[in-house]
Amino acid sequence: MKAALFATTGVLLDRHGSVDEHGPYRRGRDLPFAGALFAVGGLGLAGLPPFGTALGKAVAEHAGEAEFPWLPAVFVLVSALTSGAVLRAAARIFAGAGPRPRERYTGPETTGGGEEPEIRDPQRRIPVPMLAVPTVLLAAALAVGLLPGLGVALAHAARQFTDRTTDTAAALHGHAVAPSAPVPDVGWSAEGVLLALASTALAVLLAMTAVWGPTLRSPALGRAAAVCEGVGRRVIVPLRRLHSGHLGDYVAWLAVGMAVLLVVITV
């Protein structure tokens, strides 16, 4: 799913020379098909059934909720926040929705502006492969969720890959043996579908609030906006100072995250 989004972003870069949400505001309206692909990718990132991302999310939630009952809530929240940002960008860039966004953060960070396109000819047609690649990737993600045999085959391969007995038999003796542990169930469940729909609905709600919230006049919305503004100043801005988007920050926080995860699992 992320690969499809990256490929679609390449279309925007090829045409407008920027992948920043603020720079190409409304400029992607001449790319309706790319905009549709980007929006579908954002919904799939949230876990919209029947995409394979929703199935994988449901399987992971089911596998971890026995020991970590709070894990499904984390999956829903993180999926909604990530997808909401993608849908917000899609609405602003490809549909011109909402007022022009204002950048309130002035600290050091990486941006998508000022990128150099490979070919400087905005009048030419978008090459077919640039649109075909994300289309095929989205179709593949859809196939993983729709074809039951594919999910079972992937689960069987994953079980063999993580089973020491089967690895030893294949590597040393040249023959396959049945995994010592049963293959987990990777089918759809009512709980998984409901959680996937919840994360998708929350992502759409967050995107709509971010895009159209500033244009609405309501005391309740005003108070909510003030609360969000306060949270942004006290929480989001310090986090952005800690992670500017530079490569070194990615490496450092990856190490921190792995260390915290190991502590949580072992304690």
TrEMBL record:
Signal peptide start and end residues: none
Membrane topology field: Multi-pass membrane protein
Record GO cellular component, one term: plasma membrane
UniProt key word Cell membrane: yes
Chain segments carrying region Disordered: 98-122
Positions of transmembrane segments: 33-56, 68-91, 131-155, 193-213, 250-266
InterPro entries for the chain: ComplexI-like_HydComp
Subcellular location: Cell membrane
Keywords: Cell membrane, Membrane, Transmembrane, Transmembrane helix
Protein name stated in the entry: NADH-quinone oxidoreductase subunit D
The species this protein was found in: Streptomyces alanosinicus
